[in-house]
From TrEMBL:
Lineage: superkingdom: Bacteria
PROSITE patterns xref list: PROKAR_LIPOPROTEIN
Annotated protein name in UniProt: CocE/NonD family hydrolase
Start and end residues of each Xaa-Pro dipeptidyl-peptidase C-terminal domain: 315-560
One Pfam family per UniProt: PepX_C
InterPro entries: CocE/Ser_esterase (IPR005674), Xaa-Pro-like_dom (IPR000383), Xaa-Pro_dipept_C (IPR013736), Xaa-Pro_dipeptidyl-ppase/CocE (IPR050585)
GO molecular function, one term: hydrolase activity
Keywords of this entry: Hydrolase
Amino acid sequence: MRLMLAAWQRWMLGLLLVLGLLGCSGQTGMTPENNHYEFSMENDFLEMRDGVRLAVTYYRPLARSPDESFPVILEMLPYRKDDFFALGDYDYGSYFAKRGYVLARVDVRGTGGSTGPVPVSEYSAAEIADAQELIDQLSRKPWSNGKVGMYGLSWSAFNSLMTAHRKPPALKAIIAAHGSTDLFYNDVHYIDGALHIDSYAHQIDTDNAMPQSPDYRIDEAYFKNRFDREPWIFTWLRQQQDGEFWRAQSLAFKQQPLEVPAYLIGGLLDGYRDFALDVSRTSTAPVIVEMGPWNHAWPEYGVPGPNYEWRQKALRWWDYWLKGIDTGILQEPARMAFMRTGHAPATDLKTVPGYWRCDAQWPVQGAITERRYPQAGQGLSPAPAASGLAQTLRYKAGAGLAGGGWWGEQTGDMAADDMHSLVYDSAPLTEAMEIMGMPQVRLKVAADAPFYQWSVRLEDVAPDGRVSLVSGAVINPSQRFSRLEPQALVPGEPTILNTAIHFTTWRFKPGHRIRFAVSNAQFPMIWPSPTPGATSLFTGVDTWVDLPVVPLRDQGSQACRMSPPQASEAAPFGRVIDSDGPVFSSTRDEETGDSSFTASNELSWVLHDNLYRSQERYRWEVNDARPAQARYQGERRNLFTIEGREIDLLARARIESDESYFYLTFTRELKEDGMLVREKTWQERIARMYQ
């Protein structure tokens, strides 16, 4: 079975793109016939108030007249513009520069080519303050017209939103793909408030320890600022509950709504997709939203398609806000989503069936809510069950592999997970039904221990019995009364749990059944709860799912005009030379109760005749009879050969748990030209807090 973990997706799809494996290739040219600007690439530094110098690469169009100036687009990331992201950055830098924009690609302080220590965590106060100062400095460059935009996917979508909330005067608009407004519930560390351990923490904590580019100097300043800095995974594991740490930069908890225009892009197979709804509901500035069928990726290459050239629309967006050109973009429908037509489960679709649906607003006109109630006989009906009897489910900690690594990616037949779930099916539909939105869920439950995790899924059951995942969500019951003041369950005492299933679209076809599945394990997405036992679900008036039903449209009508993806200009200074992966595998033994999931990947590329290699392997394990003793272990190695000098950084991580604690060990090992230079290990026992 193929799975995609949240962190793996967040990092590796970006890395595959930047290494040219998923992006378009080809030469668009810079000839006068297509009216494109010639441009230059310039490496420089921008000094912050505290003396830290942030490394920047400018993709700058060459002025055609002495007084010509250009708007600036800022992207700030920790993902190392000079090595890991060099090839992919060129794709976007060249595209926008040739069309009259300066793209400034900046490494976050303490990472890549920038100076200073590695920050205390993601999206630190220093990082967002730097973004504000960068915007001010960029607006005052002699080649700038004084107007700045900020954009990016994932990390740079997050900090674009956070910076925009602070309203720097020169920041006129943003573009954010796959961002978040709620860092505890809607990021990679605690999915829906439940602990998610994955490869991203391991990867970033390895790469943060690499020497500063482009010199890769190994000295005492490097050890102090990078290699010896505590890995972020320790901080994240100490912060197991919602609070100021997570809310400091989360837009969802700011008193003022977003007041900077935002073009938002999401994916129906991306774990962060709900952010676009959150922003569009509250923003006082113009917002346009596009929700495609793909994963954690830009629309021109995301999988599965259909794909389109979002950069054409981005130019019209930037032209309007940064150049003052009325492109008509605000007169077009502001909401666009791909309505998926129900299809058989598959993990390798290049394109999914369906159609683009454009609307002026969400919810769409004519949308209604249809409530469905689970029945004691495993039915799903518009009327509640009369009895309210309890149905019991034994806890199997390794169940959930079919659902994948987060609420995204393509999944196979969900029957394997349904075997370990309570499932409730509607009668076969007599006519098609389309849903678009976030289905709401209420459960009346009880348990025999103070803590379990619940998982709810909406699925499509075909007449031949195959089951496709539509969407899902996890519920951490300790947060049922308050996210800030968690409370244990009272064993045997019924309680109410509420959640929203992540945003989705789906057309259920006639003859198909709607399935609502409830389980108490979602491995490897969520770290297993510690106690063997059972949970109960009470059918009746307090257990239901609300479906956001929208009026049917003719799939043959094309309401949205979509441009096909365009070729990007290949970077002239490098190429990928080898790739093996990513490779995913999972196993479950029903007799022994053992479940495991593994992931591996190897990449090699050349930049300016220097050789870069990255290798990684990760494994998650649990046994049904001993759920407290879950385990993660991983290894990531970066081997850079630069002007004949070999830098070899290896990082190993191991996380184990018991009923009361997590045990975390992280080791970094640095070699130069085959000789050990430094080794450092961090170890800590961290109390479990409702995770």
